[in-house]
Structures
1.
Amino acid sequence: MKETTCIDILNELNDEKKEVHRIYLLFGEGNEYLKDQIIEKIKQKVLSPGLESFDFSAFNGETLNINEFEGYLISPPFGTKRVVLIEDGNRLKREDLKHILSLRVPDFSVLIFESTSKDAPLLLEEDVIFVRDYSVKQSTTEDWIKFKFRENGKKVSQEAVKEILARLDTDYYLLDSEIAKLSLYVGDKKKIELKDVIDVVNYIPDTKIYIFINSILSRKREQSIQIYQTMVQEYKIFQDNFLLSSLIREFSRLL
């Protein structure tokens, strides 16, 4: 088993010459956006086009049926490989966890095991990547912001990048959402300037509420819970009805 960082594994997945590993253990609590990016990169790299719905399956640790999971894991794929994801692995029954960790993953399958636990499990399998470090340097985040704007066909000034970080910190879900919103806001304009950020991007509280509601509408249960718990902690300085009134306001905008 090899322990690495999320940034290193994302760079590896972006390298066309590098093969995917058999098992990815995404442990710990941190940047959930980067966890999701690792999962998406693996899927993009190994799943055959048009067969994603057949060769990818996600199981939740709280409701996982061990026989169904194992049957799917060892069944030959329709394409070249299949990807099997276990979310909330920390919620697995102890006997199921022990059984899963004793399995040998077939060559045609990739197992992604996500858990909030920080402790590395003991595995018989050798081809395993273990990630629990989701820290990102600010310079790396700045480069990522510029890259996301380029994906949207835009350039961005350094002053605008600094202001985005000042308003949103390093919450990648928020950054991704606001970059998309800014790109739409400026229309045909090719470069995002400081004034655009000031006009469009809110400071964290209202923006995080917007992302929270979107995660609920997208049925991302665990992400919704994590964002809600964060908001409760961050907004404890406000009056008791602040969070509720903000949620009602944002829901009204969506409906």
2.
Amino acid sequence: MSHTIHVDISRAANGRQQIRSRNAVAEAGRAADGSDADDAFRAGELLLGALGACTAGTVWAYARQHGITALEEVRVHVAGDEETAPSRIARIRVEVQVSGALSEVERDRLQRAAHACKIHNTLRHLPEISVGVSLAEAPVSA
């Protein structure tokens, strides 16, 4: 089954990029003057955050669907090494910590589930990406 996910990005009044999908809103980018800002995500952090959130959610969903009721907590730390030429995140490390009275078999099953999230699959099996640039219509003056 195929489903299309939509996300819209526009410039917010503070100069950052505003990201909207459904009723959710987030901001990414630097301060309006171009300096680093600690109160907004950078695009690379959003990518790593998407991978971490997807991984944690997939582990929780797998546990729920397969009756692994001893799972108490899932914590994920994601780190990415930046490179240049071209600018990118060249290496990503995902560390998943689970807690609860889990058997070795259950931990192994959760480990396999952690590799099955949509974002992990997208990064492993590179998507086709197309970028189009068009001229926006000028606003109508009253």
